[in-house]
Amino acid sequence: MSSDPFNRVVQAIDAANAQDPNREDWQGTSYPKELLYGLRMSECLERLCPTASELLRLAARGQHIRRWEIPRSDYPATREGYLRWRTRLYGFHGDQLGLIMAGAGYDEDSIRRVKRLLSKRDLRSDPESQALEDTACLVFLEYYFAPFAAGQDESKLIDIVRKTWRKMSDVARLRAVELTLPGPFGAVVAKALDAGMS
Questions:
Q1: For the whole model, what pTM was predicted?
Q2: What is the DSSP string of 140-181?
Q3: By CB count within 10 A, which of 19, 25, 62, 163 is most buried?
């Protein structure tokens, strides 16, 4: 393991997420689902914000750390249940990442900062929080929207795209319209944006 604290934390995040029992196939290889998500988050953040701080890069890599341990199915299949699940996850991911960071020698201020980024409380007012949200939205649109959308009602998908769009900065929106989505899904995004999104 690297002696550099940043790389030690990244390696520990990846080792934790490599334990995910859920798998996802990508370009002919099967990956633990959350390991692949973390890699995609890091790659997307690098493209979107190449000067991102060390702490923002850690938050992006660890945003879904050990997520499978708190499954959505543990909460009611309602909007309230979804919001409770998401709130629990924010604290869980922050605690997991904080323990790893402490073990690698990061101070309390750095750990609190990463936890704050993962809490999603400061969108719009904190550029780094917005950059993290932008990255998550772009990763969703590029990699997860099409599989999620298969078999779903188009009006529901349009609503999801609109909600995602509202969370994003202008810079991220420009990146989003450049994405090439498979099959009819690019047309669904275009229809959502044509229907009054700015």
A1: 0.92
A2: IIIIIHHHHHTT--HHHHHHHHHHHHHHS-HHHHHHHHT---
A3: 62
25 membership: H or E segment, kind and range: strand 23-26
Q: Is residue 104 within 8 Å of residue 5, measured between CB atoms?
A: yes
Q: Is the pLDDT of residue 198 over 70?
A: no
Residue carrying the six token digits 């869980």:
92
Classify residue 31 by its DSSP letter: E
Sequence-distant (6+) residues with CB within 8 A of 8 are 1, 2, 104
Reported as a single tens digit per residue, the pLDDT across 97-138 is 999 999 999 999 999 999 999 998 888 899 999 999 999 999
Give the list of residues 6+ apart from residue 97 with CB closer than 8 angstroms, or none: 9, 13, 58, 59, 62, 65, 114, 115, 118
Amino acid at 156: K
In this structure, the number of other CB atoms found within 10 A of the CB of residue 167 comes to 15
Tokens representing 130 are 């917005």
Give the residues across from 150 on adjacent strands: none
Q: Which amino acid is at 191?
A: K
